[in-house]
Specification:
The complex is a heterodimer of chains A (506) and B (336).
Chain A (H helix, E strand, L loop, with lengths): L13 E11 L2 E12 L3 E5 L6 H8 L7 E6 L2 E3 L4 H6 L2 E4 L11 H5 L6 E2 L2 E2 L1 H15 L14 H14 L4 E5 L7 H16 L3 E5 L3 H7 L2 E6 L2 E7 L5 H9 L22 E8 L3 E8 L4 E5 L6 H8 L7 E6 L2 E3 L4 H6 L2 E4 L3 H5 L6 H6 L3 H4 L7 H15 L16 H14 L4 E5 L7 H16 L3 E6 L2 H7 L2 E6 L2 E6 L6 H9 L1
Parallel strand pairs in A: 3-10, 3-11, 6-9, 9-10, 15-20, 15-21, 18-19, 19-20
Antiparallel strand pairs in A: 1-2, 1-4, 4-5, 7-8, 11-12, 13-14, 13-16, 16-17, 21-22
Helix pairs in contact in A: 4-5, 14-15, 15-16
Chain B lengths: L8 H4 L14 H5 L4 H17 L6 H26 L7 H18 L2 H26 L3 H20 L4 E2 L5 H4 L8 H19 L1 H11 L1 H6 L4 H27 L1 E2 L7 H11 L11 H20 L4 H27 L1
Antiparallel strand pairs in B: 1-2
Helix pairs in contact in B: 3-14, 4-9, 4-10, 4-12, 4-13, 4-14, 5-6, 5-7, 5-12, 6-7, 6-12, 9-10, 13-14, 13-15, 14-15
The chains are: A alpha/beta (506), B mainly alpha (336).
Chain lengths: 506, 336
């Protein structure tokens, strides 16, 4: 693949932004950022959530217009770009969520939206020829006639990159491209990025994974609070430098509650041994102890959520065992898991847990119907009584009416009612996936308090989260998972922001 | 942008929490039952026909309306249960024809008792086939029951050879008037409605169907046996179709291979008119009964006014579209 004239490739290709400022509703997200994208080199862009990474690249791609500063492309300065000009000038961005047409073929997707043709008829030969050439340039072998929907996530990403190649993109921005990839697929992606670099493309590579920086980039740039805080050689900068640049000293550790210390040798209520599920996770051992909040911390796509699904019987285990109080159990579905005393609060409230058009009482009582029913009959009164048992405990802000529709409450209060489900069901093990996603700050605190109160009453709690601050706020013990495997086990006194970020990256 | 989770910011966010109760702008309108518009329509129709026709407002004519509504009514009860669970059964008309033909056919060869048992079994088979296709195989309920609609009406014609089959000594079920001159079909209709009202309001099965219709994924994760309940609802639909078929052939003393044509339209119109949401999660037996009464009154009144039966079909179609449009409007206003 390596061309002899690699040094010349990309000469003259240069995009520079300087002094870029941008505010949203009075909040300054970028405070004068400079960045150069040079043909034939890869720059890794790092930063916490909210550091301004996405805003910056969206300004380069023309999605946002900067309040101040200039974008200079190959010598011509622009005060702002729109998506059409940005594209015309060779800027292409590939998002985390792949936007392809799954039922169309690889070849069709590579020229999607710009099919060559004559008088309204598509020139299929040209479509295929272009696709073949683009894939060759990347050094990939894909069936041009396969529907894209049949491909793996990694392969679909290649198709997206090939689209950029067909468009002769000089500047390619990749937004966390490996977030949903396995490690082998990631390795391959690095290869494609390297191939493009050799051919003279300037690449911006946004990532959360610090170990990728050295593998893929020439330079590394760190943003924090809208400022560029570090620009360095990617090959010589070590992870500690990067972490402290990202986190910064002024962001203090989040306050931790007093940890409950359950002894290591306490008999676990639920136990996972050598658990594996193809394509999601492997060799997972977990102990859930009564009275303890265990956090399972991993990035999106790390397999953390899938482990919890397996504990609730929603995902099949290909290897390993689940034990309840020392006895092996086979969980074939949620109904059975619930019978074993396990409760789940899923991540996507609207889709997976809320009955927004039903009443608060019904929402809270549904899993407990079999117990609440007398001779198979449930009355609204019994349900309402169940609701009022927990209304005060959970501090739900609702009207004085158990019949109120759940959908009329705020997200945080809905979540409290749904947490109440498992209180009423007397769950002994409570599994939570991203329990405070989309919940405002005040309600967050209350949900954490409820989780801790539950643990204090002897429930074994597992919180699966991709938010390290959540781990710090709620966990007595933490397990860090990356690419489907456990990479660290932290005791209460080891749980701190920096440590978590470091562990999850490597 | 992620929220800043530093400890100080927690208290400042508290006043912004949950301004509940402010969403409902018009308390008077929201306190009215959802069935209120239907009651108004029903009273309006009653007044209109009372003025227009001297034969409308009397006890016998009211019994006529109820009798005419009883076949669709017996089937509309499980159809309400299904629609609340976001399911549909289009095969009810074809099933009614099929079950009727089975009973009449075998009543000729064997005695009446076993033939009736076979007829009910036919309904159970129909319900089970629908239920298995939807829950186990995972075919969309509209497609499933569109398929069984075609298949079972075809089977009915095969068995009857396309002829109307007479049935004798079986008129009690359809024509007896045990008390207050009320025909037995009306009493059966009422009993089925009562049974489904209890089922949908007070049993785990009924309540679970609301949860399934409201959010099937959440229902499963809350431990509700989604497939089992959906199957049971289709099964009940089959049983009620068989019951309606028995009433039908008893009334006519014959099983016609076209007996159930278009019945699915009447049933779904009534259920949707009664306030059940096509998306599932909403709907009541009381609403469905009112829907049936509106359609029945309209049909009855149009006959009394000597309007051609072709126009009655037009009216029924328009009513269905109005009912569905109303459902959509309500959803749009609800989500705003």
């Amino acid at each position: 693949m390596k061309s002899p004239d690699a040094d010349q490739a990309g000469a003259g290709i240069r995009l520079s932004v300087s002094g870029i400022r941008k505010s949203f509703g009075g909040v300054e997200v970028l405070r004068g950022v400079d960045l150069d994208i040079v043909g034939g080199s890869v720059v890794a862009l790092l930063g916490e959530n909210g550091a301004g990474k996405s805003t910056l690249v969206k300004i380069i791609a023309g999605d946002y217009q900067p309040d101040a500063g200039a974008i200079t492309i190959e010598g011509t300065a622009h005060s702002s770009l729109n998506p059409v000009t940005a594209r015309r000038l060779g800027v292409r961005m590939i998002f985390q969520e792949i936007a392809d047409a799954p039922t169309l073929t690889v070849a069709e997707n590579i020229s999607l939206g710009a099919w060559p043709g004559r008088r309204g008829f598509v020139a299929w030969r040209t479509v295929k020829k272009r696709a073949r050439e683009a894939l060759e340039r990347l050094g990939v072998d894909l069936d041009l006639d396969a529907p894209v929907g049949d491909l793996s996530v990694g392969e679909r990403q290649v198709v997206e990159i090939a689209r950029a190649v067909v468009d002769r993109a000089n500047y390619l921005i990749l937004d966390e491209p490996t977030a949903a990839l396995s490690s082998t697929e990631s390795e391959r992606l690095f290869g494609y990025v390297a191939a493009l670099r050799e051919q003279g493309t300037g690449v911006v590579y946004i990532t959360h994974r610090l170990d990728e920086v050295r593998a893929v980039a020439d330079r590394v740039v760190v943003l924090r609070d809208g400022n560029l805080v570090l620009e360095a050689d990617a090959k010589t900068t070590d992870r500690r430098e990067l972490v402290s640049a990202m986190v910064g000293r002024e962001i203090s550790e989040v306050r931790r509650p007093e940890a409950v210390l359950v002894p290591d040798d306490a008999e676990p209520l639920m136990r996972l041994r050598g658990a594996g599920s193809t394509g999601a996770f492997d060799r997972i051992d977990l102990d859930l102890r009564a009275g303890e909040v265990l956090a399972l911390y991993g990035k999106v796509g790390s397999g953390a959520g899938e482990v919890v699904q397996a504990l609730f019987g929603v995902r099949k285990l290909d290897a390993g065992t689940v034990e309840m109080e020392g006895e092996a159990v086979k969980l074939r579905g949620p109904a059975q898991a619930i019978e074993h005393g396990i409760g789940l609060l899923p991540a996507d409230r609207q889709r997976e847990s809320a009955f927004t058009m039903l009443s608060l009482a019904e929402n809270l009582a549904a899993p407990s119907w079999p117990r609440l029913a007398k001779h198979g009959f449930i009355t609204r009164r019994v349900e309402a009584e169940a609701y009022w048992r927990w209304h005060g405990v959970l501090n739900v802000r609702s009207r004085d009416d158990a019949g109120q529709e759940l959908g009329t409450l705020s997200g945080g209060n809905q979540q409290k009612v749904l947490l109440g489900r498992w209180l009423e069901r007397h769950a002994r093990v409570l599994l939570l996936i991203e329990p405070t996603r989309g919940v405002d700050v005040g309600a967050r605190e209350e949900i954490y308090r409820s989780i801790r109160a539950l643990a204090a009453e002897g429930v074994a709690v597992l919180v699966s989260t991709s938010d390290y601050e959540e781990v710090v706020q709620v966990a007595d013990r933490a397990v860090v998972i990356a690419r489907g495997e456990i990479v660290a086990r932290l005791a209460a006194d080891e749980i701190e922001t920096k440590r978590l970020i470091e562990e999850v990256g490597g | 942008m992620e929220l800043n989770m530093s400890p100080g910011s927690a208290s400042s966010a508290a006043p912004a929490l949950d301004p509940q109760g402010k969403r409902r702008r018009d308390p008077l309108l929201s306190r009215l039952p959802e069935t209120a518009p239907l009651i108004v329509v029903l009273i309006g129709l009653g007044l209109f026909f009372t003025i227009k026709s001297p034969y409308f407002f009397n006890y016998d004519n009211f019994l006529n309306i109820l009798t005419a509504a009883s076949i669709a009514g017996i089937i509309a009860a499980p159809a309400t249960l299904l629609m609340v669970g976001a399911q549909f059964d289009l095969s009810v008309g074809s099933g009614l024809t099929f079950c009727g033909v089975v009973v009449a056919h075998f009543a000729g060869d064997m005695s009446l008792g076993p033939a009736i048992v076979l007829g009910v079994a036919a309904g159970m088979v129909l319900g089970s086939v629908n239920g298995i296709l939807v829950t186990v195989v995972g075919v969309n309920p509209l497609i499933t029951t569109l398929g069984t609609l075609a298949a079972f009406v075809g089977l009915a014609r095969v068995i009857s050879d396309g002829q109307t089959l007479p049935i004798t000594h079986f008129s009690t079920l359809g024509t007896a008037r045990p008390f207050f001159e009320i025909p037995l079909p009306v009493l059966i209709f009422a009993a089925v409605m009562l049974a489904f009202w209890v089922l949908m309001r007070f049993t785990i099965f009924g309540r679970s169907m609301y949860a399934i219709g409201a959010n099937p994924v959440a229902a499963r994760l809350a431990g509700i046996r989604v497939k089992r309940f959906i199957f049971a609802a289709f099964f009940l639909s089959g049983v009620c179709v068989a019951l309606a078929a028995l009433v039908n052939i008893s009334q006519l003393s014959a099983a016609s291979p076209t007996a159930g044509n278009g019945l699915e339209l009447s049933v779904i119109t009534a259920v949707v008119l009664g306030g059940a949401s096509l998306a599932g999660g909403r709907g009541t037996i009381i609403g469905t009964v009112l829907g049936l009464l509106v359609i029945g009154t309209l049909n009855n009144g149009l006959v009394l006014l000597d309007v051609s039966s072709f126009w009655q079909e037009v009216a029924r179609g328009v009513l269905l579209i109005l009912a569905v449009s109303f459902d959509q409007l309500r959803l749009k206003l609800g989500t705003r």
